[in-house]
Amino acid sequence: MRRKNKFNFSKLFYNDKFVMFFSVFLAFTIWVTLPGNSEDITYTVIKDVPITVPELGNELKVFYKSNDKASVRVSGNSLILRNLTKNDIVVTLDDDFTEIESATTGKYKLTAKKASIANDYSIQTNSIDPAEIEVFVDREDSKIIPITVQTDAAVGEDYHMGTVTYTQKEVTVSGAQSILQKIDSVKAEYTFGEKLTETKNVEAKLKFYDKFNEEINSSYFYNDYVTPEFTSINIKIPVMKVKKLDVIPKFINIPDTLDTNGDLFTISPKTIDIAAPDDDTIDIDSVATKDIDLSKISSTKKTVTAELIIPSGITVINNESEVTVAFDTGEMTSRNFIVTNIESENIPAGKTVTYYSKMVNVTMIGKKSQLSQMKASDLTAVVDLSDVTSGGGSVTKNAKIEIRNSSMDQCWPYWLNDDPYPIVLSVSDKTESSEASSSETSSASSSESLARS
């Protein structure tokens, strides 16, 4: 039986052709896989190299540059270039930039250099991309500008818009001096596009305008030429329900018999429109005036202005805070009376009163038809003694005039002075004799009253 010959790999190396082929293949493989020697030059591009800006004098500062990074083409040993990073190269502006002495905008070339001279590589000529950048240079400044609110806010029927409020009244803007000088005003603007029926709180963006009311180029802000401390504010638009209230005059020094519900006077306006943020706040139908002193009204002084008493939390629309009260004095006249009927009220217990004044001169104002029928006996001077003590001698108290005839309902007393009807009197402790005298006086007064009846 014939035996198979076993393959022997080592015998191939005794074959001249195989050895020649293998040598060529091995040399080619080594040449491909191993780096070249120091004389082999390769090229690469280092990307995202930061662009540094040299410092400037005259307080100048760079507010804008069109690029922050650049790419640089370098050459050298591939083994060195393989480990090269953006931190090994410095890209900066050329010397022309450092000669700037005032605010300017321009294009300046970039230069590149090695961060360390130990690196064995070269920066190619004209190898920087971009080759130049645009730069804006200016002095830094700040400016405080008042804020005004501008909206299209309008309210629906039967509603009132109150005063717009906002917390920030001004804004500080910092940045390039030449741009700041262009800014003349700042507006917080908001558009609703519909009529309001309730209070609104909204955020309004700030817009900046020049002296011609043209909006400042927004690119100045996007490119950090100038920077406001905030870009919007919160504003409140108060909206309130409107209600109509009657005006009610309030008189003092008015006789109980006087009819103030007739045609004695006219009031203007008769009603006012008010508004409040809460419907419960205006759960009223009328508003009163402050005191109107009727004793100061005469045929020559027939018009007074009275301030309204406005409840807290209510806004009077159109700022109607007072009304005019005009008395119809066309049918009125005046008469003087000497009043001898003098009475006391609120006499302290155990005290008696002695009057030294026996009469009072009174001027009455009223309708001619009524005053012509009035008698002095229809009038009584009443003195309030609630604050008088005995033992002090004579005192002077002012009396009020009462009309004791109900048919005289369009008449009232008039005086010019602050002390209208002075009565001189004294108050003393009661004695038996004074009580008898007082009793006799009361009986006489009662008898006289019965007689008049």
Brief characterization of the structure:
This protein is mainly beta and 453 residues long. It is built from 7 helices and 29 strands. The strands form 5 sheets. Strands 1, 2, 3, 4, 5, 6, 7, 9, 10, 11, 12, 13 and 14 form a 13-stranded mixed beta sheet that branches. Strands 8, 15, 17, 18 and 20 form a 5-stranded mixed beta sheet that branches. A 5-stranded mixed beta sheet has the order 23-26-27-29-24.
Q: In words, what does this structure look like?
A:
With 453 residues, the chain is mainly β. The chain has 4 domains: 42-130, RNA Polymerase Alpha Subunit, Chain A, domain 2, CATH 2.170.120.30; 140-237, YbbR-like domain (RNA Polymerase Alpha Subunit, Chain A, domain 2, Beta Complex), CATH 2.170.120.40; 241-327, RNA Polymerase Alpha Subunit, Chain A, domain 2, CATH 2.170.120; 332-448, RNA Polymerase Alpha Subunit, Chain A, domain 2 (Beta Complex), CATH 2.170.120. 13% of the residues lie in helices and 45% in strands. The chain has 7 helices and 29 strands. The chain has helices at 16-33, 78-81, 95-98, 177-180, 219-222, 368-371, 432-452; strands at residues 42-52, 60-65, 69-76, 89-93, 104-114, 121-129, 132-151, 159-161, 165-166, 170-176, 185-190, 200-209, 226-228, 232-237, 239-252, 265-268, 271-276, 286-293, 303-307, 315-316, 322-327, 332-339, 342-345, 351-355, 360-367, 379-384, 394-403, 411-414, 422-429. Strands 1, 2, 3, 4, 5, 6, 7, 9, 10, 11, 12, 13 and 14 form a 13-stranded mixed sheet that branches. Strands 8, 15, 17, 18 and 20 form a 5-stranded mixed sheet that branches. The chain is rod-shaped, with a radius of gyration of 52 Å. The model is unreliable at 436-453 (pLDDT under 50).
